[in-house]
């Protein structure tokens, strides 16, 4: 099967990309609205880009009816947000925050998710998340007027204590069970893992 991108509609391109670029990590993002309400929403067009500076990127598209999502409104106003990684115990709650909540309704409050103040920014983090990164805007890139790429610089990292070996600076993989996004409302576990010896090449 072969397609030229120019022969496909945006929706058809989306279906191809989300069917095969799998699994995708999920940015579970908290922001604070002008009225103080804390918003939480998941984004699966997401990844980290490097460590110096520590950058992440995720895409925020318009809602189907053309409205701008609360996350983007809040980020544009304050320049701050927290990116969390989701594990299995929090997967259902993460999925539920993807619903269409009014701006004056806090998803964490509605779902009973605990919040903890951040160290460097005014946006709180989700207390139970295995990993959280406090961020400030590094750059916003408008794409075709219907989505924005948010590049964030990590200012502080929070790790659930039992998941981190502080001497080796290494995650305890047997205890860390993140979830990935597949497509539609489908997700995957990451418990089935495999190891390979270091690649030798020809040198």
Structural write-up:
The chain contains four helices and 13 strands. The termini are far apart. It is α+β, with helices and mostly antiparallel strands and 203 residues long. The chain is globular and about 55 Å long. 15% of the residues lie in helices and 35% in strands. The strands form four sheets. The protein has a seven-stranded antiparallel sheet. Strands 6-7 form a two-stranded antiparallel sheet. InterPro entries: Flavin_Rdtase-like_dom, Split_barrel_FMN-bd. Its cofactor is FMN. It comes from Bradyrhizobium aeschynomenes.
DSSP helical segment count:
4
* Low-confidence runs of at least 5 consecutive residues: none
N/C terminus separation: 37 Å
What's the order of the H and E elements?
Answer: HEEEEHEHHEEEEEEEE
Strand order across the largest sheet: 2-1-5-8-9-4-3
Please give the share of residues in helix. Answer: 10-25%
Main beta sheet: 7 strands, antiparallel
| Strand portion | 35-45%
Give the CA-based shape.
globular
Rg (CA only)? 18 Å
Please tally the β strands and state the result.
13
What would the average pLDDT be, to the nearest integer? 94
Family: Belongs to the flavoredoxin family.
Cofactor: FMN
Domain Flavin reductase like: 19-167
Protein name: Flavin reductase family protein
